[in-house]
């Protein structure tokens, strides 16, 4: 059994840019691990240069997330304009597209030292900075804060990320039920942390492959150590 | 101690495309989101609303900063004088060359339509007369998507950060803080800018008034955007009806954290005005929007005195 802190959140708009996307910025369907750390840091009042310091308490947290509900959030393709500079003048406007998720509903899951989790619980009730899912205006609402005891469970997942490339795991099978629908998982290489340089620029570190299992159908993924709470399985992304 | 002001609001648009996306062929499409059931609802991005708020602050007499005041190579540098420029203070900035950056203490959510987009389009013609030809030569036809809708939005103001500038934000050695008077005035003028809200694209022929027709203002001891998911409405018998259950739920849930709550309700918008008035007056004064915002500005007047 493992004590976990579960934070259920909603946001009308959210986006989690896939790292290499530039002119067309797709979104991940769920917050990646660095966003989960960032939200904890914002609640605790840690600016990013403190959040990503080697001794930062947040770095010792274990993180995961699952989507609430059966369906995908709404999606939009939002056009932005970048001003390009040539010879010290703004010479042209270059459009790019950013995917946005609408009406998102997630449970963020944190594990680790219980003292730190208690600090985090308090911080989510009274966050030092407003909390957002993505960019600073993508505000999120904390709907519920709960403690749970996670136990080892069956590796059957839906609507949650796994720290694996599921394309490389043999023996994956869907748990078929009437009404289920399936779409391919998003698989992406993502950092577990950043280092922040003197200019405030973040550099990714400890990248791993993460598969985001969609919510419409449960999938059995052998070989992934699963934890379970109230019948729902998840896996730590950073352990 | 008060940590945040949160304003949830509803703006009514009768026929407009406030925030357009790209063009598809000769159609200017509205920004909209596709829901899992395939329907779409329009939205106005948070960036667009920030831009409108900045412009309304300029209307109120403020000189705004110039985000591209210095251009060097591919880097643009804003002035980084938030004590001087209200928009740098309230909406933040990024100086890519030196790493100075200020996260906005004013968070502005996208405004999302409460009702599905129905596919309506406005047909226009760009006359060839403009290009030196006779009017009889005709012109190019184009279409613009437009909608009638109620938009819900939220603004959250971090009170402890307005008018307070950290060394890493300014490049200075010490924290710099404006006088309480200036800090209060900036927040009051932001509320006034919300009262005056309009803007976006296509205003020459699709002008829309985005000033709130309903609002909930609250001063909180925590930084939570409590009204973010609390405003819902339905449409029956030719009138909008405000669904009060989600709003009452958050007012109850955050009862221990709310320090002062005010509601603004303009007449003639909602078919259940009396129900709104009778339900919400248990939680705070219910006034016309203009008076509610005036009351909110009075409430800000009490900030950073001993009692707050």
Automatic annotation (TrEMBL), chain A:
<dbReference type="GO" id="GO:0043571">
    <property type="term" value="P:maintenance of CRISPR repeat elements"/>
</dbReference>
<dbReference type="InterPro" id="IPR021124">
    <property type="entry name" value="CRISPR-assoc_prot_Cas5"/>
</dbReference>
<dbReference type="InterPro" id="IPR013422">
    <property type="entry name" value="CRISPR-assoc_prot_Cas5_N"/>
</dbReference>
<keyword id="KW-0051">Antiviral defense</keyword>
<protein>
    <submittedName>
        <fullName>CRISPR-associated Cas5 family protein</fullName>
    </submittedName>
</protein>
<dbReference type="Pfam" id="PF09704">
    <property type="entry name" value="Cas_Cas5d"/>
</dbReference>
<dbReference type="GO" id="GO:0051607">
    <property type="term" value="P:defense response to virus"/>
</dbReference>
From TrEMBL, chain B:
<keyword id="KW-0051">Antiviral defense</keyword>
<dbReference type="InterPro" id="IPR013414">
    <property type="entry name" value="Cas7/Cst2/DevR_sub_I-B/Tneap"/>
</dbReference>
<protein>
    <submittedName>
        <fullName>CRISPR-associated Cst2 family autoregulator</fullName>
    </submittedName>
</protein>
<dbReference type="InterPro" id="IPR010154">
    <property type="entry name" value="CRISPR-assoc_Cas7/Cst2/DevR"/>
</dbReference>
<dbReference type="Pfam" id="PF01905">
    <property type="entry name" value="DevR"/>
</dbReference>
<dbReference type="GO" id="GO:0051607">
    <property type="term" value="P:defense response to virus"/>
</dbReference>
<comment type="function">
    <text>CRISPR (clustered regularly interspaced short palindromic repeat) is an adaptive immune system that provides protection against mobile genetic elements (viruses, transposable elements and conjugative plasmids). CRISPR clusters contain spacers, sequences complementary to antecedent mobile elements, and target invading nucleic acids. CRISPR clusters are transcribed and processed into CRISPR RNA (crRNA).</text>
</comment>
């Amino acid at each position: 059994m493992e004590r976990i802190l579960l934070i259920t959140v909603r946001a009308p708009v959210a986006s989690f840019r896939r790292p290499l996307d530039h002119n067309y910025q797709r979104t991940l369907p769920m917050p990646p691990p660095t966003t989960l750390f960032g939200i904890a840091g914002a609640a605790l009042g840690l600016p990013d240069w403190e959040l990503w310091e080697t001794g930062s308490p947040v770095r010792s947290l274990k993180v995961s997330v699952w989507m609430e509900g059966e369906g995908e959030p709404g999606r939009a393709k939002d056009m932005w304009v970048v001003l390009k500079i040539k010879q010290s003048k703004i010479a042209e406007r270059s459009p790019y597209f950013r995917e946005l998720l609408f009406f998102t509903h997630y449970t963020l899951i944190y594990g680790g030292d219980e003292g730190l989790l208690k600090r985090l619980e308090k911080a989510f009730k009274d966050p030092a900075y407003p909390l957002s899912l993505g960019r600073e205006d993508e505000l999120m609402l904390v709907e519920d804060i709960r403690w749970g005891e996670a136990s080892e469970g069956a590796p059957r997942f839906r609507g949650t990320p796994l720290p694996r490339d599921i394309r490389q795991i043999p023996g994956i099978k869907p748990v078929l039920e009437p009404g289920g629908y399936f779409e391919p998982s998003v698989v992406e290489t993502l950092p577990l942390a950043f280092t922040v340089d003197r200019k405030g620029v973040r550099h990714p570190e400890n990248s791993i492959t993460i598969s985001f299992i969609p919510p419409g159908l449960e999938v059995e993924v052998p070989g992934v150590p699963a934890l379970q709470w109230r019948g729902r399985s998840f896996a730590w992304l950073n352990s | 101690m008060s940590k945040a002001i949160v304003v949830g609001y509803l703006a009514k648009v009768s026929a407009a495309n406030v925030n357009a996306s790209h063009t598809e062929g000769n159609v200017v499409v509205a920004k909209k989101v596709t829901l899992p059931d395939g329907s779409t609802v329009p939205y106005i991005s948070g960036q667009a609303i920030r831009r409108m708020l900045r412009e309304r602050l300029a209307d109120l007499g403020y000189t705004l900063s110039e985000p591209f005041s210095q251009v060097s190579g591919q880097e643009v540098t804003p002035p980084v004088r938030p004590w001087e420029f209200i928009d740098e203070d309230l909406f933040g900035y990024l100086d890519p060359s030196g790493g100075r950056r200020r996260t906005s203490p004013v968070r502005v959510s996208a405004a999302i339509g409460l009702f599905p987009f129905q596919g309506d389009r406005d047909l226009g013609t760009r006359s060839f007369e403009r290009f030196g030809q006779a009017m009889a030569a005709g012109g190019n036809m184009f279409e613009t998507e437009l909608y009638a809708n109620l938009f819900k939005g939220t603004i959250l103001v971090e009170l402890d950060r307005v008018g307070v500038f950290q060394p890493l934000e300014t490049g200075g050695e010490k924290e710099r803080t404006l006088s309480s008077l200036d800090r209060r005035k900036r927040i009051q003028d932001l509320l006034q800018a919300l009262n005056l809200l309009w803007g976006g694209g296509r205003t020459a022929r699709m002008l829309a008034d985005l000033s709130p027709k309903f609002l909930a203002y609250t001063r909180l001891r925590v930084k939570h955007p409590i009204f973010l998911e609390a405003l819902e409405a339905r449409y029956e018998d030719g009138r909008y009806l405000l669904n009060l259950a989600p709003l009452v739920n958050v007012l109850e849930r955050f009862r221990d954290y709310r320090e002062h709550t005010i509601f603004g309700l303009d007449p003639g918008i909602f078919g259940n005005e009396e129900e709104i008035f009778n339900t919400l007056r248990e939680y705070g004064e219910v006034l016309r929007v203009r008076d509610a915002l005036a009351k909110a500005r009075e409430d800000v007047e009490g900030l950073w005195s001993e009692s707050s």
